[in-house]
């Protein structure tokens, strides 16, 4: 172990010496210095004037077969020009090296394959000098013309510039680098491949089409293969990340500590905020990235615009994150951050209430609009948007679920609206239940608290809720302070049939007096359900048919489904199975119109979630 530590320390010292040497190179004769330094170094190892040594072929290579096939397809053209893009450590260099050593490429270019690592150069002159050193060109102040002449007069050549973003990234050198790349692509016999962190290709180059797509994270299976090929199979998939470098690094170091400890060291010693020129031009990009850290589902452009963030240039921030590969677009064009970046930002740069607040309000308004239009075909739009954020919403709500938080009551109310939505799309109980229940005694908003518990009992079995008897009693006390027969009836419908019958009849009378057809349908749907529970199937069927009639008038598909559902189970109880099957099929067809899930028949003492 001590020998390993000594080797690691010596490697770090040697690395620092190289960096110091590079830093000492003056801008006036940098190309000459680089050429002499590399040529002399290689000459001592048996070569005359070239440092062109190819990196080894990757021995462990999984999950990039389709990307490699795309690259090889481009080589079917005479001289392709390709850019391999993606986040740092995602496998760009490994992919380029795999292409470099592929049999087809070796046969086509033989010894005329150059792999130039650009991570130490700081200007166009230094880049040209490094390429010249690989070609064995005699050192000089500016080797541009010599390099271009050498490449144009020689045999067909493949030139790979790895980590080109190092020299292309700074604004002061970008123009010169792009002009040099343009000159390289004027050479008919030169195939050019670059790897760059980010999602933006250098301009002034006619890149071969179709462009190579930025690399996406490895699949779980590919990441596991990388890990197992290096280390042994003794870690869970949750611990193995989907980034190529993380999988390789973790596997190499797995014997020296736990993966969580390793991840902590990596995150604290290797900050990800290392794209100064493109990021600093849009300083609010960091705030957007911090928000993405708690949004596994990402955000769409519509959500970025409609959330009314205080950042005026929010779409510019999005573009900056995409250019630097700190974020990416998934198959649905939603802006997301990779897991390691989300973990880093959530731990060290978490989002502020100022960023979370507008998105919370946006989701709150969507849930409220869904509650109003619930049952109508127009609610399909809200279902689609809410479902796209199903994992995001609990994270945003959770931010306000703290003692003393100004949005505590609104967060409880938002969670209560989320319960029936989750039930309707077939996702079941929401993950915030226990946290909300623990905070109910500390909120003064009785309506928000009662709404949450009523919908909670209406959406799942009471024996799955902690201390149900005490919660029922407390809910009754909150309901006494509210003049809301509908909410009271909804609660009693799943708890106490005689009292539920009383409140549902009160709600029906009140709805009739105000001419509210939707509330009449709701009250009748509950009355129908109660009558079914008591075995009065004929009355229940009559009520259910009236529910369907009123629901059609108000264009409320959900209440029509509720009526069909109750009538169907009444027909089942009465032995009319043919009619039962017809009603169930009709209900299923209506549910599909709004992308709902067909409800599973509930226990006898529990009303279906569709009635809550």
Overview of the molecule:
With 612 residues, this protein is mainly alpha-helical. It has 4 domains: 2-197, Rossmann fold; 220-269, no CATH class; 352-482; 516-611, Tetratricopeptide repeat domain (Serine Threonine Protein Phosphatase 5, Tetratricopeptide repeat, Alpha Horseshoe). The chain has 30 helices and 6 strands. It has a 4-stranded parallel sheet, sandwiched between helices. The chain has a two-stranded antiparallel sheet with strand order 5-6. The model is unreliable at 21-49, 242-257, 265-273 and 598-610 (pLDDT under 50).
Strand and helix layout:
Blueprint: H1 2-24, H2 30-43, H3 65-74, E1 81-86, H4 92-100, H5 103-109, E2 113-117, H6 124-135, H7 144-153, E3 157-162, H8 165-168, H9 171-185, E4 190-197, H10 220-230, H11 244-253, H12 259-269, H13 276-280, H14 285-292, H15 301-306, H16 314-323, E5 328-329, E6 335-336, H17 339-348, H18 353-373, H19 379-387, H20 392-399, H21 408-424, H22 433-439, H23 446-459, H24 468-480, H25 485-493, H26 497-514, H27 517-533, H28 537-553, H29 557-574, H30 577-593
Helix pairs in contact: 2-6, 3-4, 6-7, 10-11, 14-16, 18-19, 18-20, 18-21, 20-21, 21-23, 23-24, 23-25, 25-26, 25-27, 26-27, 27-28, 27-29, 28-29, 29-30
Pfam families: nSTAND1 (PF20703)
InterPro entries: nSTAND1 (IPR049052), P-loop_NTPase (IPR027417), TPR-like_helical_dom_sf (IPR011990)
Domain Novel STAND NTPase: 57-198
Number of strands: 6
CATH superfamily of the largest domain: P-loop containing nucleotide triphosphate hydrolases
Broad structural category: mainly alpha
Largest sheet: spatial strand order: 1-4-3-2
N/C terminus separation:
64 Å
**Helicity level:** 55-70%
Shape designation: elongated
- CATH hierarchy, class of the largest domain: Alpha Beta
């Amino acid at each position: 172990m001590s020998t390993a530590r000594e080797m690691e320390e010596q490697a770090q010292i040697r690395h620092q010496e190289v960096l110091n040497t590079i830093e000492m190179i003056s801008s006036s004769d940098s190309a000459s210095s680089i050429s002499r330094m590399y040529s002399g170094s290689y000459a001592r190892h048996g070569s005359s004037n070239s440092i062109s040594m190819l990196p080894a072929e990757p021995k462990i290579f999984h999950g990039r077969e389709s990307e490699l096939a795309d690259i090889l397809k481009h080589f079917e053209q005479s001289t392709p020009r390709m850019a391999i893009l993606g986040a740092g450590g995602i496998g760009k260099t490994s992919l380029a090296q795999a292409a470099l050593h592929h049999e087809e490429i070796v046969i086509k270019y033989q010894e005329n394959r150059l792999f130039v690592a650009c991570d130490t150069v700081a200007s166009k002159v230094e880049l040209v000098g490094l390429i010249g050193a690989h070609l064995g060109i005699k050192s000089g102040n500016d080797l541009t013309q010599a390099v271009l002449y050498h490449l144009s007069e020689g045999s067909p050549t493949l030139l790979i510039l790895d980590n080109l973003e190092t020299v292309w990234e700074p604004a002061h050198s970008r123009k010169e680098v792009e002009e040099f790349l343009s000159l390289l692509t004027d050479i008919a016999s030169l195939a050019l491949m670059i790897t760059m962190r980010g999602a933006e290709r250098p301009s002034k180059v006619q890149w071969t089409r179709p462009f190579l797509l930025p690399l996406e994270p490895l699949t779980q299976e590919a990441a596991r293969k990388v890990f197992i090929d290096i280390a042994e199979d003794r870690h869970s998939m949750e611990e193995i990340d989907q980034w190529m470098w993380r999988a390789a690094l973790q596997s190499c170091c797995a014997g020296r500590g736990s993966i969580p400890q390793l991840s902590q060291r990596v995150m604290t010693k290797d900050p990800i905020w290392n794209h100064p020129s493109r990021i600093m031009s849009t300083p609010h990009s960091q705030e957007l990235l911090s928000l993405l850290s708690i949004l596994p589902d990402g955000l769409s452009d519509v959500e970025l615009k409609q959330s009314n963030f205080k950042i005026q240039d929010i779409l510019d921030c999005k573009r900056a994150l995409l250019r630097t590969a700190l974020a990416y677009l998934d198959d649905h064009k939603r802006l997301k951050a990779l897991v390691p970046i989300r973990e880093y930002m959530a731990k060290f740069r978490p989002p502020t209430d100022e960023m979370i607040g507008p998105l919370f309000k946006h989701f709150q308004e969507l849930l409220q609009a869904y509650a109003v239009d619930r049952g109508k075909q127009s609610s399909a739009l809200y279902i689609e948007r809410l479902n796209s954020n199903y994992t995001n919403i609990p994270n945003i709500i959770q931010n306000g679920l703290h003692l003393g938080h100004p949005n505590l009551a609104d967060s409880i109310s938002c969670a209560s609206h989320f319960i029936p939505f989750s039930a309707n799309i077939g996702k079941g109980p929401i993950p915030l239940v226990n946290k909300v229940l623990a905070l109910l005694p500390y909120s003064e908003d009785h309506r928000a608290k009662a709404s949450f518990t009523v919908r909670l009992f209406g959406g799942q079995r009471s024996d799955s809720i902690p201390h149900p008897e005490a919660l029922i009693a407390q809910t009754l006390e909150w309901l006494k302070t509210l003049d809301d027969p509908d909410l009271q009836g909804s609660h009693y419908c799943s708890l106490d049939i005689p009292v539920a019958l009383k409140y549902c009849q009160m709600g029906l009378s009140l709805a009739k007096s105000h001419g509210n057809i939707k509330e009449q349908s709701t009250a009748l749907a509950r009355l129908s359900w109660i009558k079914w529970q008591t075995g009065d199937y004929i009355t229940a069927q009559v009520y259910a048919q009236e529910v369907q009639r009123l629901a059609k008038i108000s264009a409320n598909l959900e209440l029509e489904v509720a009526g069909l559902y109750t009538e169907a189970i009444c027909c089942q109880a009465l032995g009319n199975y043919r009619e039962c099957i017809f009603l169930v099929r009709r209900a299923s067809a209506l549910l599909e119109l709004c992308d709902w899930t067909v409800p599973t028949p509930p226990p006898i003492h529990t009303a279906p979630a569709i009635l809550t």
